Amino acid sequence: MEKKVLITGVAGFLGSHLAKELLNEGNFVIGLDNFSTGKRSNLQGLLDNNRFFFKELDVCSSYLLDDPDVQHVQEIYHLASPASPKYYQAFPFETIQVNTIGTKNMLELAKRHQAKMVFTSTSEAYGDPEVHPQPETYRGNVNTWGPRACYDEAKRLGEVFCYEYFKRYNTKVKVARIFNTYSAGLANDDGRVISNFVTQALKGEDITVYGDGTQTRSFCYVSDTIHGLKLLMEKDGANGEIMNIGNPVEYSIIELANLVKKLTSSTSSITFHPLPEDDPKVRRPSIIKAKIILGWAPSITLTEGLQKTIQEYKVKLNLIN
What is its main location (predicted)? Predict the structure, then answer.
């Protein structure tokens, strides 16, 4: 049955992937974006679909709730927010607003229309964790006074808004704590580690590792992340729950650099640079809760996902036709 779905941040990496999937399933999708970090190019292939309606609008707008174009929605995916340190540190106040005021607006819209809602929070809610891997019950080791706080703490406060709307109004909201997600669709100038490494390797530039490379991350291919978000929306048992969505297989950054170098047959050197302030040393999700409630686990290995990403970046960089 066709649903009317609202996606905020639709011109972003995850938003545009999600919109394509929902349209392919026969849904009507309303996409909002103010292009602060979203790219118009991500909307290619969406705008000519007659079941897609795009509106250039800031989700923090006080006019949003009464906008006739967003009424009677059945599902809301609130994805709007800068997600790369490069961007959220450049736009700290906008990052704080979209995850707090913007989240409250979306929750109010969900409450008015009895809509389901997924809020995309982040693994950054765990800060530089002292518990490993990180279960949803872990409260985090976070810093409110640093360059990452505008993102980490705004997402955490967004979760509080979700809690209050669920407890007070029984709003059908679910929170996804998303761990590192990547794919060929991630802009090659995004500033995140996989886009950096693949671009540098393909161009024969130095692969820049921050710190000594022993810090770890877990990388989830975008189709697995999107599948998790859709299951989160679908399952009523997830209402009022926080769920880790990420790949539990952990790699050190130096392992990733060497794997990218190998898969690209690159002659790049690996160079080491000072670690940015508050950069987490480890990051790996416990996905037991997602397995039990959603029946979800990622299926694409890092090697498989990197091969797809490398092939697409070669096209983007005009290295192949």
Answer: Golgi
Count of domains in the chain? 2
pLDDT digits (tens, 9 = 90+) for 13-69: 999 999 999 999 999 999 999 999 999 999 998 999 999 999 999 999 989 999 999
Q: What's the pTM value of the predicted model, to 2 decimals? A: 0.94
- CATH classification at residue 304: 3.90.25.10
151 is catalytic: yes
| One-letter amino acid for residue 179 of the chain | F
Which of 254, 182, 251 shows the shortest CA–CA distance to 220? Answer: 182
One-letter amino acid at 315 equals V
Residues 6 or more apart in contact with residue 76 via CB below 8 angstroms: 5, 6, 7, 8, 106, 109, 110, 115, 116, 117, 118
Give me the domain span that covers residue 153. 4-181+220-245
Q: In whole angstroms, give the CA distance from residue 230 to residue 220.
A: 15
**Which of the following is catalytic: 87, 151, 182, 313?**
151
From CA 164, how far away is CA 185, in angstroms rounded? 35
- Upstream peptide bond of 298 is cis (omega within 30 degrees of 0): no
